[in-house]
Write a structure and sequence with these properties.
Lysozyme, 2 domains, mainly alpha, 2 strands, 256 residues
Length: 256
């Protein structure tokens, strides 16, 4: 038994088909005789062009199939618009990360399975991402700089692991060990604040632990360094290619 609603729909469908059958019979027959008829319409949505094609084979459906098509039309698929991916300028000291924390950890352990750290590699990387996010510094490239400065946390130079000093802060010669920090997080914070001192006039969001922050800000005043290559001859002396080598570590992280 049909419900009253279904019955009305069926009667409407039959009526529509009857009207269509009575009008333009000669034209319909000529269309059916063709092997293929294509009607193309292009809709421009701004980013996507959608083509709709209707073939003569659709006209050859049985009476029952045509009624079913009227009663239950196929849903029309909306065009999928893919948002453009945000691009981060890797040359800039400030910005958002591109490499993931997992990539940073993987690259470190690939080159040094037993880093000399007072915390786990995973925790150290998380400190970089958390502290850098507060100041707007690129954490992935800052970590790449730490890998360069410490030899993948194997040290072997003036700085020792107990210092939690990951960027050579205060190490001005082979006999000057530089700054000591109470914990790995504080050491990371000092590194990020030192980068901020070069790259921005904005005061740090957290209490200053970088012992050379005020010195850098006093020298540069309203001037800032925008890109990693600008650290050449400033962070490291003579520092030829210093910033470019940091980016080499960063690219290796992305490919790890």
């Amino acid at each position: 038994m049909f419900s009253s609603k279904k019955g009305v729909q069926l009667l409407c469908a039959v009526g529509i088909l009857a009207v269509l059958s009575c009008s333009g019979t000669a034209e319909a027959n000529s269309v059916v005789d063709k092997a293929s008829v294509s009607t193309e319409r292009t809709y421009n949505t701004g980013n996507t062009k959608v083509k709709l094609e209707k073939k003569a084979s659709d006209k050859k459906k049985s009476f029952a199939e045509r009624i079913e098509a009227i009663l239950h039309p196929e849903p029309v698929e909306e065009p999928v618009v893919v948002a453009p991916r945000a691009v981060s300028n890797e040359m800039n000291i400030m910005g958002s990360p591109v490499a993931t924390q997992e990539q940073c950890v993987r690259y470190l352990l690939k080159n040094n399975p037993h880093p000399l750290l007072n915390t786990s590699p995973e925790e150290l990387v998380s400190y970089y991402y958390e502290e850098a996010a507060l100041e707007g510094i690129r954490p992935d490239i800052a970590f790449a700089q730490a890998l360069k400065e410490t030899g993948f946390f194997s040290y072997g130079g003036t700085v020792v692991p107990a210092q939690n000093n990951y960027c050579g802060l205060g190490t001005t010669s082979a006999t000057v060990k530089g700054a000591f920090f109470d914990s790995p997080r504080v050491g990371v914070r000092a590194h990020i604040q030192h980068l901020l001192a070069y790259a921005s006039t904005k005061y740090p969001e957290t209490p200053v632990v970088d012992p050379r922050y005020s010195l850098v800000r006093g020298v540069y005043g309203d001037d800032t360094l925008g890109q990693w290559q600008d650290l050449n001859g400033r962070w490291a002396v003579p520092g030829v290619g210093y910033g470019q080598s940091i980016l080499d570590y960063y690219h290796a992280i992305l490919n790890s």
